[in-house]
Amino acid sequence: MKWIxxxxxxxxxxxHAQTQWKLATGYRAESFHTENVAQFARDVDRTxxxxxxxxxxxxxxxxxxxxIRQAVEDGKSEAGETIMTSLVGEMPITGADAIPFVVSSYAxxxxxxxxQRPLIEKHFAARGLVPLYAVPxxxxxxxxxxxxxxxxxxxGTRMRTYNQSxxxxxxxxxxxxxxxxxxxxxxxxxxxxxxxxxxxxxxxVENKVWGQIGHYxxxxxxxxxxxxxANLKAVQSLSPGVxxxxxxxxxxxxxxxxxxxEQVADASTRELTQQGMxxxxxxxxxxxxxKRMGERFSREWVQSVGNEANxxxxxxxxxx
Length: 320
Fold this sequence. Notes:
Blueprint lengths: L1 H16 L1 E7 L6 H16 L4 E6 L10 H6 L5 E5 L22 H20 L3 E8 L3 E5 L13 E4 L2 H10 L2 E4 L5 H6 L5 E5 H6 L8 E3 L7 E7 H5 L3 H35 L3 E3 L3 H22 L15
Parallel strand pairs: 1-2, 1-3, 6-7, 6-8, 9-11
Antiparallel strand pairs: 3-10, 4-10, 5-8, 5-9
Helix pairs in contact: 2-9
């Protein structure tokens, strides 16, 4: 009887010491982002010897993607993942991710994140949140039905757009912006409703666009990032050792995630080639024109955001 009582007390002690978190994400379980989050959760479980268990809830099952930031802030979920540009309305500094033609490589994207992160941490802290790590999506490229080597090639054509930046890009290139949901892209291409779009090679592969579109240009227009974050009070309630294990696992998840993103980008670009698409770069003169557009976009963004944005976009930070 004595041993039964002691065992029950020990079990109760372990149960009391164990902390359960939920991490909400809007992305499907098969996404490389979600797979990375799942590995992060396993690493936390392992390094804390089960003291902190994080259950990943993918595919909008806990909260819709647009509601996750507020849910974590309100303590309805201890942690979450969202795309950083979805936070622009509340934190304009997150909009740096969507400034086109400024960063052109993963190295550039890393420099952007290093400059951006202290500002993100400050704004998240003001809302009772702690950024854990951020990982970029593969870069946005240009899909086109016909070869394009200069802005003149876009005149009289229609470009799929899905936000203010892509609308302005279409207009600056002389194309007519058309709003087409991604699930309707192949139908729109077949019917002549659109001729080009800017999106990642991954998205092109997932939608098998090679049946309707023949060219992909690696313009690396921008590198949008997902950010994984936690409720500040939930983090502070952890013991120092568990908290450190959480942050260490986050550092490892960020490094692993950046590598995964680059691998996915390369694999997707190869798949487009294998499916018969012509993959390459635009002409040097067109690339220079895109860079000038990027300079214009960044100046306008700095003016709209204010002094804080000057920390990120100064001429010496991003050179092609």
